[in-house]
Design goal:
The protein has 132 residues and is an alpha+beta fold. It contains five helices and seven strands.
């Protein structure tokens, strides 16, 4: 982990990649460009500098994170080091866990077939979906 002793800003897309919010740096840059990342309440650009104690709001799919930057890094390291780069706010953690619980509950109520459809049933499904 390359920590900045002088609190030199790190590009937000590099930091998001190093903190393992996104699998690749290009995915992080695309999320920033799409308005999914805010630094201290302002929409960020990929080149926006992140400093220690900045607050980031990250939207990734249906999940929203609100984190405070605790350390800086431009290199991606092990997950154990990545977790030390930020601290998620308690409100964000509670909201994210509540959303996950709602998704689990919704998934439990959806009907699931007990068996896979056989060949005849697959043909019938295909005809039904194609409007024949």
């Amino acid at each position: 982990m390359t920590q900045s002793a002088h609190n030199n800003p790190v590009r937000v897309d590099k930091w998001l990649w190093a903190a393992r919010f996104f699998k690749t740096r290009s995915m992080a840059a695309k999320a920033v460009k799409g308005g999914k990342v805010h630094v201290n309440g302002n929409r960020a650009k990929a080149s926006t500098g992140v400093k220690i104690d900045d607050r980031l709001e990250i939207t990734k799919g249906e999940t929203a994170f609100e984190v405070d930057v605790r350390a800086l890094s431009e290199q991606r390291g092990p997950a154990a080091q990545a977790v030390q780069l930020y601290e998620e706010t308690p409100a964000s953690r509670e909201h994210r866990e509540a959303q996950a619980g709602e998704r689990r509950a919704a998934r439990m109520t959806m009907p699931r077939p007990s068996l896979r459809p056989d060949k005849k049933q697959r043909r019938e499904l295909r005809r039904f979906k194609q409007g024949e």
